């Protein structure tokens, strides 16, 4: 009877040990699954981080390109302003020359008219003298 009881107890302990071993194996498998999931999530996070870094680099490149284009536009605007100022200066110079030439022409015309009037006066005087002598 005692041997049977001891055998039954040993069998019960063995079954309990087997159950605990199975539970430990299940927990180990669960831990491995969780570890694999964590590794997958870590890899996904790394991929997302790399993607974010790539997008950030692309944004920086686009920003630099925009800044370059803005600087180019500013340079072109400054050049256009300089050309406009030069054109305005040339226009003012042309207007001054035109006014000077017009004034000179008017002066010459007035002088010519004065000479013509003087000539007419002399002609009239000569005609008067000729009539008087006749």
UniProtKB/TrEMBL annotation:
Source domain of life: Eukaryota
Alphabetized UniProt keyword annotations: Coiled coil
Coiled coil: 3-125
Keyword Coiled coil: yes
Protein name: Uncharacterized protein
Species the sequence originates in: Cherax quadricarinatus
């Amino acid at each position: 009877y005692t041997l049977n009881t001891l055998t039954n107890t040993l069998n019960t302990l063995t079954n309990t040990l087997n159950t605990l071993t199975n539970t430990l194996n299940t927990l180990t498998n669960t831990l491995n699954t969780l570890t694999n999931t964590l590794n997958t999530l870590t890899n996904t996070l790394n991929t997302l981080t790399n993607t974010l870094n790539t997008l950030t680099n692309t944004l920086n490149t686009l920003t630099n390109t925009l800044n370059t284009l803005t600087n180019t536009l500013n340079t072109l605007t400054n050049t256009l302003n300089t050309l406009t100022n030069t054109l305005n200066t040339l226009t003012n110079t042309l207007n001054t020359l035109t006014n000077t030439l017009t004034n000179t022409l008017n002066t010459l015309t007035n002088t010519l008219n004065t000479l013509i009037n003087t000539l007419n006066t002399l002609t009239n005087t000569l005609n008067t003298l000729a009539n008087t002598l006749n």
